[in-house]
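Same chain as my last thread, 341 residues:
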Amino acid sequence: PVKILPPVSKTAFTAAQALRKIVPKKSEIVFPDFGDWTYTPAVKHRGIRTPIPNAKQFREGNGKSAAKHGQDADAFREEIIKYRSDFDLPVTNRDFYAWHGVSDRDSLDGDYAWGHYFKDYYDKSSAEHPEFFALQPNGSRDQSKVLGKKHERATLCLSCPGLVEVTASNLVARFAQLPTYKALSISLPDAGGAQQCMCENCRRLDPPNARIYSVKVGSDAKVPYPAMTDRVIWFANQVAAIVKKSCPDKKLCFYAYNSYTPPPFYYKPDPMLVVLTVCGDYSRAGNATGNFASWANFGIPTYWRPNLLWGFRTVSELRQAYADHIISTPNEIINLLNERF
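reply #2:
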């Protein structure tokens, strides 16, 4: 028989009551033997992002607003650490996260790799291959001044055939080094001071009737411009076409983020790709629903990967929204995950 015991954590009981879930009053519930019946959940991985904020940065970024609201930034940081989902921390945390459907694994490290890729490309290639990098408004591809020390945030010329070949070659070599990995990242660098490429070949990849965004063309100026998702997908597809020749069973993960958040208008993602859509955040989770559904309709594995702190101005705002999200992940997103994964 199968025994289901109630959680030992008061946190789990509190969260359950908040959602009006029924917590068994008996010490245990016994079900008959289910025999050979098995069930594999449609969602392969579900997690809540609970990183430990850098103490100095967290204090500097939240100290004034915390004091204004009678709160202490350091104390709140310790609270985040206390209730984060890492399983090498208080074991009672596990009850809370398990109750809300978070996977038994804290991450997919060792299986999947995502996060911003290309971090060392500028330092390694900018001198010999400036054509790999985005053409700036001043007509140069030299991004050293605008990047400062953040060379890992260089923007790329995604229409460059040489960049496609080098990226694919590096990924094939990396898969050889990490044979157990099912996927590696091809996500573009995080936003920095450099502008997206406006060379003629890159602009030809941007459908004029795609969703309109505001794109920086200088230190202050912005102009309306179509979303750049199509150029990102074109680039990813070109890389995938090469990588799959050597690694047919592998995947490549990329972020749908920034000016390439909405789905592509013209190019369809290669089946080798895995998308992590960053649309929406813990303060505006509902905004992610339509975008997630559109990406999932391509039939590729799709994650919703919100930014934890984006959109918050005070510790009190983060405290409430963070707690609300842990207790109640939007049903629309979960339903889509169940249907599409």
